[in-house]
Amino acid sequence: MQMSVPGISDFHVVRKIMISTATKNDRGFTLIEMLIALVIIGLFAALISSKVQPDERDRLRAEADRLAQLLELAATEARMSGMPIAWKTDGVSYEFRQNRRGGGWSEMRGNDLFRGRVLPGGIKITGMMIEAMPADAMHLEFSPHASWSAYAIKMALGRERYTVAGSPVGDVRATRGEGKAE
Question: Which of 2, 46, 80, 170 is the most exposed place for a label (fewest CB within 10 A)?
């Protein structure tokens, strides 16, 4: 006598049907679907990377702002320390120097803020004016005892221009375009 449990044979039949239909319908993605997905991902990546990269204006503005802050700090340091500080550039780099009493101008050691710097990627210092007159040498001195001259340092990157301008009272700011010494 054959004994069977009701529903067991039906379960195996349903399971076989489910397995066979699943393999027919679940083939995965086609090559075309994968290529379209990759193109969309590539477009998003290109869009995001173009927004993340700063443009010429942003890079030049950041460097002009940095120079303005450092020049203002150098003027304050000269007054506080009682020793003159000079800023000098060759157009692609700049450095700060300090005049030690009787020892002449020397590199400012021990102060990371006043270390020599190379301007990044294509940024150049293209000119300088002191009291609205072109400067022969691109050199500024901050005296601890006297007032300073108005100056303008011109910076460029591609077609973008910025000017770092300092006033006789010590205000220093970076402005877009061709500024002049105040």
Answer: 2
Amino acid at 173: R
How far apart (Å, rounded) are the C-alpha atoms in residues 79 and 71? 13
Q: Convert the pLDDT of each residue in 50-65 to its tens digit.
A: 666 667 788 899 999 9
- Mean per-residue pLDDT, 75-91: 90
Predicted local confidence at residue 66, as pLDDT: 94
11-38: burial string, b at 16+ Cβ within 10 Å, e else: eeeeeeeeeeeeeeeeeeeeeeeeeeee
Instruction: Retrieve residue 120's tokens.
Output: 């990044």
Query: Does the structure show a pLDDT above 50 at 181?
Result: no
Structure tokens at 35: 């290529």
The two tokens of residue 174 are: 């970076």
Angle formed at CA 164 by CA 95 and CA 89, multiple of 5 degrees: 25
Give CATH 3.55.40.10 domain extents, the chain: 56-176
pLDDT, tens digit (0-9, with 9 covering 90-100), for 86-123: 999 999 999 999 887 767 888 887 788 899 999 998 99
Superfamily of domain 56-176: minor pseudopilin epsh domain (3.55.40.10)
In sequence order, the 6+-apart residues with CB closer than 8 A to the CB of 105 are 86, 97, 98, 99
